[in-house]
Amino acid sequence: ADLDRARAKLAAVLELFEKALAAGTIDGEAFGLVHVAVAPALHRFIVVEARLGERLLADTPRVAALARSLVARPSVAGTVPGDFADRFLDVFRARGGALVAAAPNA
């Protein structure tokens, strides 16, 4: 129940972000301060999708594309260690993260 509520809240925020990208309010191409601000969260969403199978960005294709482009960007990728995904999930597990607990392949 708590996980479902959290998913719904995240989906609502991501939908607002998707609409801002669609309207051009946030530029999906040029790298700017907004991208610096959202890169850490979007990077974590990519990790959760890839490693836990949780489709956080499935309903927001523009956000998903931006997330993938940011993660691939050397100036973003270079800010985290190579084993970032493992470390992130280890912290998630240690804190009793609900997504990790619910994931079949965690």
Sum this structure up briefly.
With 106 residues, the protein is mainly α.
Would you give an account of this structure?
With 106 residues, this protein is an all-alpha fold. Helix content is 70%, strand content 0%. It has 6 helices and no strands. It has helices at 2-23, 33-52, 61-72, 74-77, 84-94, 98-102. The model has no long low-confidence stretch (mean pLDDT 91).
Head-to-tail CA distance between termini: 20 Å
Anisotropy-based shape: globular
Radius of gyration: 14 Å
Please tell me the overall pLDDT: 91
Q: Helix and strand succession?
A: HHHHHH
* Structural class category: mainly alpha
Count of beta strands? 0
Percent of residues in helices = 55-70%
- Low-pLDDT runs: none
- How many helical stretches? 6
Q: Profile the largest sheet.
A: none
The amount of beta strand, in percent, is under 5%
List keywords for this structure.
106 residues; single chain; 6 helices; mainly alpha
What's the arrangement of secondary structure elements?
Layout lengths: L1 H22 L9 H20 L8 H12 L1 H4 L6 H11 L3 H5 L4
